[in-house]
Each structure stands twice: as structure tokens, then as C-alpha cells.
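Cast an eye over this sequence plus C-alpha cells and walk me through the fold:

***
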Amino acid sequence: MRSRMSTSATAQVPAPDQPENRPPQGALDRYFKISERGSTVAREVRGGLATFFAMAYIIVLNPIILGSAKDMYGHQLDNGQLVTATALTAAFTTLLMGVLGNVPIALAAGLGVNSVVALQLAPRMSWPDAMGMVVLAGFVVMLLVATGLRERVMNAVPYGLRKAISIGIGLFIMLIGLVDSGFVSRMPDAAHTTVPLQLGADGHLNGWPVLVFVLGALLTLALIVRKVPGAILISIVVMTVVAVVIHAVAKVPSWGLTTPKWPGNPVSTPDFGLVGQVSLFGGFEKVGVLTGVLFVFTVLLSCFFDAMGTIMGVSDEAKLTDAQGQMPGINKVLLIDGVAVAAGGASSASATTCFVESTAGVGEGARTGLANVVTGALFAVALFLTPIATMVPSQAATPALLAVGFLILSNSIKEIDWADYTIAIPAFVTMLMMPFTYSITNGIGMGFITFSVLRLAAGRGREVPAAMYVVSAVFAFYWLMPALGLT
């Protein structure tokens, strides 16, 4: 599931991007290049905390998605074991990205991919078979990195489309924040209307949880305007306390996934029973080689481009890219992402990938992997303190996504050459299709295809890198698979 500040945004964000020209302050500073990137240990810690609170919901949501499905034998995964697997894999991969990749990009079980595993793979095979296919997809990602193909695909993306991907991600996380908070909701199919979303649950803003979100959004934006350091994190903490008080006094029946209530027993014992329960090739015996390959391809495509969009967007807004919009050392980051996909399958947590909510940490000033160390450590603690980690309601955390989405949009939109329709139209398609289809991958694919077609139509086909044509063809094939009877 399924998430960046230049000069214009810097004026509003408490943490500046520009280096402060001070010498490294010890081994920790030198290793993570904290001073070199214009950050401080305090900003990295705040960023790591903000990212964790913005994505801690995955500890609850991933077990719900996977645990509600049955494999072909009618088996369901244990919820407690899924919580452990989700937190464990998020901790390991986030720490790995921080220590080795030195970027503030946290990882956890990917939304969207877990639905594919639960609804498409598991019903046609056993759970170990389905997770084995996720591991194989991770191996393929690592192979693509080793051959340099993945980096070539990323470098082939034109500058304008790179900015459009950042904007699309900004709009996407804003929509995620609005939906997860309950500020907007999907209209039931029984409504017989073409309008897909509505205000609140019934066209009106009702209930204490929505009020917490509205107050949190206003508080976050007010603190940013006032240039208060730690604006996002302060808002999350304050609104969590407010939510706890409201729940205790008003006895709110439902807050969604997480209830802001101090748990009676804050300590839980992790259950590692699902770790290693994998069959690499058992799924091919159940569905055949062709269908098995297509299943692996489906998981691969989603992981590949979701992570690509997130990495490009976060690295750009954290000022980790050069003048050409490319990030030095990107191959190491991409390789760790491939390892994360395989690790997610090996732990039965589903594919683990880069999380767009990392933008919450970037908004707090995170610029290095030290922020990831903080986020990863908190996921590790959550293995034993899951009841506490999951007491922050989404209504208190999602205002951060709203604020960061605005900052991304205001930063990147002027960087696109709107006079050149062969880049402006694909950029427009990219940035709108991400929120409208609720998928980073769909937005990237549609933008790539549009760019390739329009450059050909304008007689500028030679300006399109070969990798763009190949990827566009892959996306076209992927979306045509149902019509071809291959799904």
C-alpha cells in the first residue's frame, strides 16, 4: 500500500535543508553525515519518531488484511503471530536501510501487495506457497539491481516526470490521511451513485474522532506556519493525549483500527511461529508454471514501482539528489529494498517495501539513516509493547500526511515544464492517477505510457530512453492480462 522540502517549502518547515557548514560532531555524525546534510541529531530523532507514529497503524492493519483470508485448505494465519511478523520485519528492514543505505526511508509490509497475497495467491495455494512467491519476487528484484537494470529504469525517468511522481505521492498521502481519519469515506455501492467519496461517514462530519483529526490538522499547520521545531511530532503527541481524554470521558464506541486507551497490560510476548514458514516452489505445483510466473510478476511489479516512486519522492524532498535529480548510492538503497521484499515473505508478513509515510519524518527534518534507526528501534520495541504502539489513533497521526502532502505539492509543481505538452500531460496523468486509483504503481505506469506515446506522436521518439519503452510495454501487458485470459 501501498510516501519530501526545497527552497520554497523550507521557509515554512522548522528544519532547514541547507548545510550549516559546521564540522562533524563525532563518529555518529561522520557515519550518518548528519552535519554534511544540514541536519542535527535532534531533528533525526524527531523525524524517526514522526515516521513511526505515522506508519505504526501497519502493525494492526496488516494482520487484519492477511488474517481475514483463507488459503485453499481453509487455513487462516494467527493474528498474534502476524503482529509479531509485521513488527519484526519492519524493524529489521528499516534498521538495515538506515545503517547501510543511510536514508530516512522506513519500510514495512506494503499495502496493496498484502491484498494481492491474501486475495489472489492464498486462495489458490497454501500460505507457505504464497509467501514463497513473495520471496521469489524479492530475489528477482535483487537480480534486477545486480544487473543494473533497476537503476537504469529510474535514471531513464525525465526530470518533469520525477517531479510529477513526487506531486502524485503528495496528493496520494493527503487522500490516505483524509480516508484513514474518516474525514472522507467511500460511498457504499448500494447508494447507486457515481460519486465515490463523501464527507464523513454519511455526508456530514460527525463524532469525536473526526473532530480530533480536524483539530490536529489545524494544529499541525499552525505550528508549521509559526516555524515551531517538531511541529508534526508535537501535534501527534498532543492530539493523542486529547483523544485519550475524549475516549475516557465520552466513551466513543469506535475510533477505527486503534483505540486511544491506555492498555491494561502494555507488555505482550511476541510469537515468532510464522517466521520461516515458506515453500519457494510449492505454489507452482498448485497453479502451474505460467500462472505461478504471472503471480510472481504481479507482486514484483507492485513492489518495484511503489518503492521506486517512494524512493524518488523522499530522496528529492530530503535533498539527497544531485543536479540531475539522481541519488548517489541509489544501488545500495534499491538492493536493500529487494532484500526487504524477500524478508517480508520469509516472515509471512507479505512483501515489505518503502513507506510513503516516511515523508512525515522528512517534514520534521530527517535527512539521514539515523532517523531510520529510531523508527526501526521503535518497531523492535513494539514487538513487546504492541498495545502501547497501537494506541495512537489514526485521527491523531494522519494530519501529518495532510501537511506534508501540501509541502510536497508547493515545492515541486513549479519544476514541471508546462509549456511542453509531451511532458506536461504525462505529468498531469501521473500526479492524478496515484490518488484516483489509490496506487503509486498505477500512476507511474500510466504516466510512462502517456509519455512514450506522446513523444512518438510529436516525432520525438528518439528522445525517449529505451528503458521507458520497455517499461511502458510491461505495464501495457500487465493491464491487458485479464483481457488475454492470463489472470
User: Anything to note?
Assistant: Confidence is low (pLDDT under 50) at residues 1-19. The two ends are 21 Å apart (CA to CA). Residues 7-480 form one domain. The chain has 22 helices and four strands.
